[in-house]
Design a protein that fits this description.
Length: about 375
């Protein structure tokens, strides 16, 4: 159900103006006046598009169906005529919302403009309607219903599609993380160990040659240095794929390692505030937080021209709050929601899965702030 504010339909306003105009004329013929008033009312009432019903509070203080427009008769194939005089709670036996709105409008004079799903008493069909409830007089309430079933079904289908897409994206990220971890382990365990064994063999081979064989020693030393360089590159590649420190020592240590690595390659200094110091979170959540911080810092390095970054990571038990603030040039407004800003889109998608929010703001020459809030759900798995 959606509640909206706003004026009632133009048809009802036209009816009110015409009735007031008619009433302003002095008429000595009361019967003719009443006849004209009734004809005018029915004409305008029947011209209201959709389904229109008029509800009256009778002398027994019961709210009953007084009349219905032509749209209602067409929709119900005339069956609504059998329901004239029926009390409102009998007209809507399984649907309390219309009863509440009609009663509320009758008793308080408040107008209601809502979208809701209702079961038609006359046909038994369930449809979506945009509903207007307006008190016409002290004892009359007008209800106009516009059929928006097609629109709402399309909206529901779109929402379902979006949810499926979010889950597909998250599944893809989960598979990618698993592949990264597997490749990182393979690089460390297989390639790393093989290269280490090769270096040991070279060392043994070197010792078997007499010291005077200088050219052989130099070649072996060069090969050993190359192996050392390859081992460092493999270690770096493994850390980029999946930092072992994240699995072994946790999120706080991984974020510290990440900032230290960036600081080595740039002139950016970092200030970290992590609370609690030994922050303990679900493994999947920790991985997502690390990736979000990593992506945000990648943007800082590439685009911000910042020299200082403050990172705050706090967990309350129900929520995780991440704030990343730099002193760079400040992100432009049009870049925040730009479809080409894939890094920011990735951060939002990760946050969405954890019922989180991402707020990105920038001020020219004063820096950019990324504020992420995530709900902790220990039962949630990727």
């Amino acid at each position: 159900m959606e509640k909206k504010s706003g004026s009632f339909s133009s048809q009802f306003n036209a009816l009110s103006r015409q009735v007031e105009k008619l009433c302003s004329h002095d008429s000595s013929n009361k019967e003719e006046f009443l006849k004209q008033s009734e004809e005018l009312f029915r004409k305008v009432f029947n011209s209201i598009p959709g389904l229109a019903t008029l509800w009256q509070k009778n002398s027994r203080n019961k709210i009953i169906l007084l009349m219905a427009n032509e749209g209602s008769y067409i929709e119900s194939k005339g069956k609504i005529a059998e329901l004239i005089g029926m009390e409102v709670n009998e007209f809507f036996p399984d649907d309390l919302e219309p009863v509440q709105y009609i009663t509320g409008a009758m008793n308080t004079g408040e107008q209601y403009h809502v979208v809701m799903k209702s079961k038609l008493q006359t046909t038994g069909k369930t449809k979506w309607f945009y509903q207007d409830y307006v008190r016409v007089t002290k004892n009359l309430v007008l209800n106009v219903s516009q059929d928006v079933t097609e629109r709402e079904c399309a909206r529901e289908e779109l929402q379902k599609y979006k949810e499926e897409l979010h889950h597909l994206i998250q599944h893809r990220e989960t598979v990618r993380e698993e592949e990264r971890a597997e490749i990182a382990r393979a690089i460390h365990d297989d390639l790393g160990q093989s290269l280490t064994a090769l270096k040991i063999d070279l060392s043994i081979l070197r010792n078997e040659f007499v010291p005077s064989n200088r050219s052989i020693h130099e070649k072996i030393d060069a090969m050993s240095a190359m192996i050392d360089s390859t081992i460092r590159k493999i270690q770096s590649l493994g850390l980029e794929l999946r930092p072992g420190i994240l699995d072994d020592l946790g999120l706080a240590a991984a974020v510290e390692w990440l900032t230290e690595e960036i600081q080595k390659r740039t002139n950016i200094t970092f200030k970290l505030n992590i609370y609690p110091e030994e922050i303990s979170l679900d493994e999947n959540l920790s991985v997502n937080i690390f990736r979000m911080i990593q992506e945000a810092l990648t943007n800082v390095v590439r685009h911000s021209m910042a020299t200082r970054v403050n990172i705050s990571l706090e967990s309350t038990g129900q929520e995780v709050r991440i704030q990343i603030k730099d002193n760079g040039i400040g992100i432009a407004e049009d870049k925040i929601r730009n479809l080409n800003s894939l890094g920011l889109i990735g951060i939002r998608e990760r946050a969405r899965f954890w019922n989180g929010t991402v707020n990105i703001t920038g001020e020219k020459n004063k820096g950019t702030e990324v504020l992420i809030k995530l709900k902790i759900n220990r039962e949630k798995t990727l």
